[in-house]
Each structure stands twice: as structure tokens, then as C-alpha cells.
Design a protein that fits this description.
This protein is an all-alpha fold and 134 residues long. It contains five helices and no strands. 50% of the residues lie in helices and 0% in strands. Helix 3 crosses helix 5 and helix 4 crosses helix 5. The longest helix has 18 residues.
Length: 134
């Protein structure tokens, strides 16, 4: 019985499990949740992407469709450090497809940014077409 009563005792502030000294500033924020932080960041990213101009949204959807072909278990987009040249080659191939489909194709830099954002979302648990309204 003595063991259980010790578990319920509050620890002194200087003996918080694994922590010596005062808490870091970010742990004192009222909404600090380390486990849920990534989901909140992804939610915020998807919400802000909804505000893109219509033509950019159209390109983003088309890039997401093309990235579906490279989205499988063991794909290079899920490597710890994706190969830069493979991602640039994917950007160039997407540019080629969009130049054939569109009269005014977007620049390679915009395609690259949209592609990298889509890869980021997929690597961190974002689901394509899943939009959150705040």
C-alpha cells in the first residue's frame, strides 16, 4: 500500500521526471501538446492551401493526381532524406505534362513548391483531398 501512495504524491518541481531546472518556455503555453502539434501544423497548412488562387489550386490538384502514381509503400518520397535529383526529375516530368495540357503552363519553381508541399503532407499523415475548416 505504501508504494501506491508514493505514486500519487506530487513530485517536487526540481524532480520532474527526466527534467532538471525550470520548464522551457514553449511547455508553458496553454495549448502546448507535443503529440498533437504535427496534426495541427498539417491542418493549418491544408487550410491555408485552400486560399490559393483558383489556377494554383487546379495545378495543385493535378500534381496530387500525378503524385498518386509515386505514392506507394517503399516509395522514395517516404525516404528519410528523399533524393533531391529524383524530386527535381519528378518536377521536370510534371512540367512536361502540364505544358502539353495547359496553354499557359506554370513555371518550374511553382511546380516544385507545390510538389514539395504535397510530398510533405503525405509524409506527415495528410490525406489528399482532406480539408479542415477552422
Amino acid at each position: 500500500m505504501e508504494f501506491h501512495s508514493k505514486l500519487l504524491q506530487p513530485l517536487p518541481e526540481n524532480k520532474v521526471r527526466g527534467w532538471n531546472g525550470p520548464l522551457p518556455f514553449y511547455m508553458t503555453y496553454p495549448d502546448y501538446q507535443a503529440s498533437n502539434r504535427e496534426a495541427m501544423l498539417l491542418q493549418d497548412l491544408e487550410y491555408l492551401q485552400q486560399m490559393y488562387p483558383n489556377d494554383v489550386k487546379r495545378y495543385q490538384k493535378r500534381i496530387a493526381d500525378m503524385l498518386d502514381k509515386a505514392d506507394y509503400e517503399g516509395s522514395m518520397i517516404y525516404d528519410e532524406y528523399p533524393d533531391r535529383y529524383s524530386l527535381l526529375a519528378m518536377t521536370k516530368s510534371i512540367c512536361g505534362v502540364l505544358e502539353k495540357e495547359e496553354s499557359e503552363a506554370p513555371g518550374e519553381a511553382m511546380i516544385q513548391v507545390l510538389l514539395f508541399n504535397e510530398v510533405y503532407k503525405r509524409r506527415h499523415g495528410g490525406h489528399r483531398g482532406n480539408y479542415y475548416f477552422i
